[in-house]
Amino acid sequence: MRTLIIIRPYAVIRGLVGEIISRFERHGIRIAGIKVLRLSKVLAEKLYREHEGKNYYDSLIENMTSKPSVFAVLDIDVLDDAHATSLVRKIIGDTDPALADMGTIRGDFGLRIDQNIIHASDSPDAAQKEIPLFFDEKEIVEY
Ligand code: GDP
Predict the structure, then answer these.
(1) Pairing mode of beta strands 118-120, 30-37
(2) 10 DSSP β-pair partners
(3) Is the shortest distance between the CB of 81 and ligand 1 below 6 Å?
(4) Contact 128, 1 (CB under 8 A)
(5) Contact criterion met (CB below 8 Å) for 63 and 10
(6) Distance of alpha carbon 24 from alpha carbon 10, whole angstroms
(7) Could you report the per-residue pLDDT of 51-74, keeping only the tens digit for each?
(8) What angle do CA 52, 139, 137 make, to 5 degrees?
(9) Are the CB atoms for 47 and 34 separated by under 8 Å?
């Protein structure tokens, strides 16, 4: 089962990419595709379409597009697809870093919800929609 994570600009500029990737690798999760790019406004708006109209929407889009992010497709060998996305969400922690458990990525490295350091697809359906926004099939490797 494949899912998408985005190591957001706040983590990239703080040099946390390796630390974050290693947390997934330690679970036995494989990196099937990875790239660095500065998100375009069009793609940021697609990714966060559900948040349009919220008072934080404009700054969310601005934060996501102002500096580069690291995009990765994770390949997760679990018995049930839903377990793959829920495991990744457990590893990243609550949306609000102030509420995220210690030991999670957001709990250990995050400070403010408006400066979140990582995105992860929240369901198999979301993963299926989000991966093709950033990766061609030929950029994803099975191994
Ligand atoms: P996620 O999947 O855990 O990142 O959570 P959501 O999909 O609900 O939110 C997406 C992103 O929007 C979050 O990571 C935050 O950067 C931002 N966001 C969500 N809720 C809030 C909020 O109440 N205030 C602010 N400032 N940002 C928010």
Answers:
(1) unpaired
(2) none
(3) no
(4) no
(5) yes
(6) 19
(7) 999 999 999 999 999 999 999 999
(8) 75
(9) no
CA 95 to centroid of ligand 1, rounded, Å:
6
Q: Is the Cβ atom of 106 under 6 angstroms away from ligand 1?
A: no
**pTM as predicted:** 0.97
| Domain 2-135: CATH superfamily, name plus number | Nucleoside diphosphate kinase-like domain (3.30.70.141)
Predicted local confidence at residue 3, as pLDDT: 97
CA of 127 to the centre of ligand 1 (A): 17
Quick one: pLDDT band at residue 116, thresholds 50, 70, 90? very high
Provide the token pair at 21. Answer: 């990737």
pLDDT at 105: 98
- Check residue 98 and give its pLDDT: 96
Q: Classify residue 98 by burial, with Cβ atoms within 10 Å: 0-12, 13-18, 19+.
A: exposed
Please report, for the chain, the start and end positions of each structural domain, with discontinuous segments joined by +. 2-135
